[in-house]
């Protein structure tokens, strides 16, 4: 066995016999490389369950639109039905399943594993949220295309979903992660995720003109509402793009706040 002097190793600092100077630790992990690593790990872990998740979320939204077809014939109401059903796919995965995942992770002690990794807390939350939100892209596109064909809506502005999906996904993922991390028991995290998804379903798919004033106020407090509004406005003959951009900006702001709350909840749960 050969011995290499400590001075030869790059970045190493020798410890004096008197116990004076300690070794220099490596640099802290940066956010974006850590986020990419967590994202790939989460994507690989959930790859087996991807097809069932996509099928359930898409089938649910398509079934809702078929039922609403007997009530809503067209016009502005059909726009909200199609846009709301498309965003419900995002809510099912990003809000419901992410709340269950972090609730189970906290109950099983899985947060201890992440706490030992040299990754920032924000990378864990953002990586898991991005991985779960990625599963919603095919189902959301299929739902939107099916709804446009079913209600006779134009397909020209389907590209808006490329912006709506990540913004609504960020807002709902942060909310779902916070519910899972703050809930004292995994059963309560599952309940909160189910309630949030049900709220996104009922308040997003139903036309707002038929809602009472109090219910409409609750609808305005739901983060996914602004993604629904942004996509619904694009079905107009001449879309008001300033209004669409404003709804997306609100959705982005809510996403930043909800992900920040989820990061704080992760730090709080990891040290307990």
Q: Which secondary structure elements does this structure contain, and how are they paired or packed?
A:
Layout: H1 31-45, H2 50-69, H3 75-107, H4 110-116, H5 121-134, H6 136-151, H7 161-182, H8 186-205, H9 213-221, H10 224-233, H11 241-270
Helix pairs in contact: 1-5, 2-3, 2-6, 3-5, 3-6, 3-7, 3-8, 3-10, 5-7, 5-11, 7-8, 7-10, 7-11, 8-9, 10-11
How would you characterize this protein structure?
The chain has 272 residues and is mainly α. Helix content is 72%, strand content 0%. The chain is built from 11 helices and no strands. Helix 8 crosses helix 9 (213-221). It is elongated, with a radius of gyration of 23 Å.
């Amino acid at each position: 066995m050969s011995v290499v002097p400590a001075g030869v190793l790059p970045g190493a600092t020798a410890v004096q016999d008197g116990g004076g100077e300690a070794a220099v630790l490596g640099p802290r992990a940066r956010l974006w490389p850590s986020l990419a690593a967590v994202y790939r790990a989460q994507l690989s872990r959930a790859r087996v369950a991807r097809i069932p998740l996509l099928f359930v979320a898409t089938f649910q939204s398509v079934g809702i639109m078929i039922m609403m077809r007997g009530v809503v014939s067209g016009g502005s109401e059909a726009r909200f039905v199609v846009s709301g059903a498309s965003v419900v796919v995002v809510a099912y995965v990003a809000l419901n399943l992410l709340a269950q995942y972090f609730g189970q992770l906290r109950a099983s002690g899985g947060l201890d594993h992440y706490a030992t990794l040299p990754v920032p807390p924000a990378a864990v939350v953002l990586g898991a949220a991005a991985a779960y939100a990625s599963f919603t892209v095919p189902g959301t596109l299929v739902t939107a295309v099916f709804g446009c064909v079913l209600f006779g809506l134009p397909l020209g502005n389907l590209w808006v979903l490329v912006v709506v999906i990540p913004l609504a996904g960020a807002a709902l993922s942060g909310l779902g992660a916070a519910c899972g991390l703050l809930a004292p028991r995994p059963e309560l995290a599952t309940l909160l995720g189910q309630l949030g998804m049900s709220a996104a379903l009922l308040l997003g798919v139903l036309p707002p003109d038929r809602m009472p004033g109090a219910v409409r106020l609750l609808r305005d407090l739901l983060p996914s509402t602004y993604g629904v509004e942004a996509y619904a406005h694009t079905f107009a003959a001449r879309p008001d793009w300033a209004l669409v951009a404003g709804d997306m900006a609100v959705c982005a702001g809510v996403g930043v706040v909800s992900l920040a709350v989820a990061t704080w909840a992760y730090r709080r749960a990891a040290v307990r």
